[in-house]
Amino acid sequence: TWKWVVGPMFLYLCERLVRFWRSQQKVVITKVVIHPFKTIELQMMKKGFKMEVGQYIFVKCPAVSKLEWHPFTLTSAPEEDYFSIHVRIVGDWTEGLFNACGCDKQEFQEAWKLPKIAVDGPFGTASEDVFSYETVMLVGAGIGVTPFASVLKSVWYKYCHDATNLKLKKIYFYWLCRDTHAFEWFADLLQSLEAQMQERNNAEFLSYNIYLTGWDETQATHFAVHHEEEKDVITGLKQKTLYGRPNWENEFKTIAGNHPGSRIGVFLCGPEGLADTLNKQSISNSEADPRGVHFIFNKENF
């Protein structure tokens, strides 16, 4: 038995030693941003830190707990000179981090008073392959939109730097939320991208659809009165917010018709039920002919 046990135990000890070494490396919190609905953004710097889009890190805050590590998706782009995470305050540990960063106080918090942070990672996810396709579908459900913040930022940096060498030519972005609170921090990024794409006369590069899934007909009717206004009253975007859930069969057929003979990457960060639906649609809408359209499904779950 010991011959079978000693190998895995040795690998496990090596992994723990690497994690301990990484956790001892100095991490500096350069900025803490408080977003609406008790969401904070931590911008950090660490010597030698390199990331790709959609990756995640493990974070430990000894001021809150000396043993707990928690995974967070990176919301910054590789082109930026810092890396960032968005933390929604939903439990004891996140509440402790919120207070340790001084977010519960009205006065300005000095940088030297910010807590020490240990970071392990980054670790890869399926979202890293987004630049391998000419056309992609990005589907985020609730807080599962965070990997695509990194993707959309990086796409914009690459587009501005050298659009001709960017393989990615079209993005279909879907965001499903039960209520409006989660829109508040992410809508700013979409508004910026929307404005900049229009300035470059390429508004068609990014098509996005935002769905409120938790609203009833009465609430939806109230906002439908403002449907003719130039900007959406909830998000401030030109694209109007939709109510209910997407008809995925129609969405896939429309995209397949727009891009015949293409390999289309489908990327999801969301619940298992939605993953099953998108996987089935990817299979049923892919053609048997190798020269036809093919949907390649990729997922990650929180």
UniProtKB/TrEMBL annotation:
Residues 19-129 form the FAD-binding FR-type domain. It is a multi-pass membrane protein. Its main location: membrane. GO terms for molecular function: metal ion binding; superoxide-generating NAD(P)H oxidase activity. One of its GO terms (biological process) is superoxide anion generation. GO terms for cellular component: monoatomic ion channel complex; NADPH oxidase complex. Pfam families: FAD_binding_8, NAD_binding_6. It catalyses: NADPH + 2 O2 = 2 superoxide + NADP(+) + H(+). Its cofactor is FAD. Catalytic subunit of the phagocyte NADPH oxidase complex that mediates the transfer of electrons from cytosolic NADPH to O2 to produce the superoxide anion (O2(-)). In the activated complex, electrons are first transferred from NADPH to flavin adenine dinucleotide (FAD) and subsequently transferred via two heme molecules to molecular oxygen, producing superoxide through an outer-sphere reaction. PANTHER family: CYTOCHROME B-245 HEAVY CHAIN (PTHR11972:SF60), NADPH OXIDASE (PTHR11972). This is NADPH oxidase 2. It comes from Sterrhoptilus dennistouni. The lineage of its organism: Eukaryota, Metazoa, Chordata, Craniata, Vertebrata.
